[in-house]
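subagent[fold] <- orchestrator: predict structure for attached chain, return tokens only, no commentary.
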Amino acid sequence: MSSNNNSQQTLIAIGSAIIIALLGTVAYLFINKNDTASQLESTNLKLEQTIQLRDSLDNQFNSAMLELDDMKGTNVELNEIIEQQKSELTKQKNKIAGLISSKRKLGEARDEIAGLTARVDQYIAQINSLQGEKDVLISEKQTLTADLTTSRAVNDELTTAKATLVSEKEELITVREQLAEKVKIGSIVKTSKVTVQPYKKRKNGKLDKKKSAKRTDLLEMCFNINRNGVVEAGEESFQVVLMDPAGTPVLNDTQSGSFESKESGQEVRYTYEVTEAYENVDKNVCIQYEDPNGYQKGTYEILIYNKGFLSGTGSFFLK
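subagent[fold] -> orchestrator:
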């Protein structure tokens, strides 16, 4: 009897242990099922939010692109601004898409989408402002064009009248210049009979006539100042250019200078200048010129100018 009781107790203990184990397993499975369901629900919620954010992003971006494209026109600068704005919106959209794909940054993605919406509104307002300024400028341009057309008509009349006056004025100026030129040419005091005598200078101051360049110390140049009835009596200046055999003006630091030729307009450098009292009668003038550099063998030319015009010429030869 005692043996049967012990067997029964053992079976009861084993059965209890099995029941307890089964109850624990059932409890674990129940709890695990609840956790899995909760995780699944959270995952589904995030997936749904991700899809909603992605759809919202695509809708807002596509709508903004269409609206910006509709605002394009013939204004090249405005179109370039719109293209730049579209490029910036594309960069921001790509950034938001990256945040959405991360799933952990959905809140930041929502903030960026709101910023995208604000930026689109800002761009549209900016374009509308530029378009308004363009419309004002077009209106002002039309007004100015109308004023310009009227002004051109008046200006054409004035231009025609001015052209007539200018033409008449130019004719008068031409006549006046021609007369002035004749007066200038008529006021030239001509020179003639240009002669040159080379001399050797002795120690006692006396001068000996020479013909060779090596023995010549100074030149005595003489010329006649001819009478001109048009020219009033007074002082007349003559610029004498002594050209050496090489065709170069003979110059020195104390007597030489330059003037502008009335005939060619070019600068003429002269050897020395002679100023004489002019009394409307023929007059012979002589001057002595000494070149410290000496003289060369060959033919020298003499050019005499009065009032910027060539007045007379001459030449001489040194052996």
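orchestrator: received. Logging for downstream: Residues 106-186 form the longest helix (81 residues). The chain has a mean pLDDT of 77.
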